[in-house]
Amino acid sequence: MTNGTIVKVHTGMKVKGVRVLIGELSRRTGVNPHQLRYYEAQGLLVPDRGDNGYREYGDDTVLTVAQIRRLLEAGLSTQEIGYLQPCVTGPAPDLKPCPETLDLLRARIAGLDEQIDTLVQSRRTLREYLTATERRMAD
Q1: For the chain, how are helix, strand and coil distributed in percent, rounded to 5?
Q2: Exposure of 56 in the CB half-sphere (CA atoms within 13 A)
Q3: What burial class does residue 50 get, using C-beta atoms within 10 Å of its C-beta: 0-12 exposed, 13-18 middle, 19+ buried?
Q4: pLDDT surpassing 80 at residue 8
Q5: Same domain, yes or no, for 107 and 122?
Q6: What is the CATH number of the domain that holds 66?
Q7: Which of 41, 57, 91, 126 is deepest in the core (most CB within 10 A)?
């Protein structure tokens, strides 16, 4: 390999800045190829296209997918993740203290607090119905 030359290898991967196809990215991340295409459609992943039209991902995409998965686990939507992506670093992921990050996280927590309050009230009401119904059965 000469300096800066990309060499195609029979595995479907390119050497030099290692590029992988969607199947290999799926294997490395444990994320279904269909989900990876969905992340692409949402603007969260931006693969290159090879001469054959196949999606080609860089090694850094493994980290990006891990970040996306962790943020989804935290309850963020793909739209919110896309908004935060410029402020996301590291595998945890860590969030840079961008003003939009703080605003979004505060709003998301406030929304969760509202949902929790609604669920607590629903549980209270259902318990009241249950208690009243059980009393009627005992009579």
Answers
A1: 60, 10, 30
A2: 17
A3: middle
A4: no
A5: yes
A6: 1.10.1660.10
A7: 57
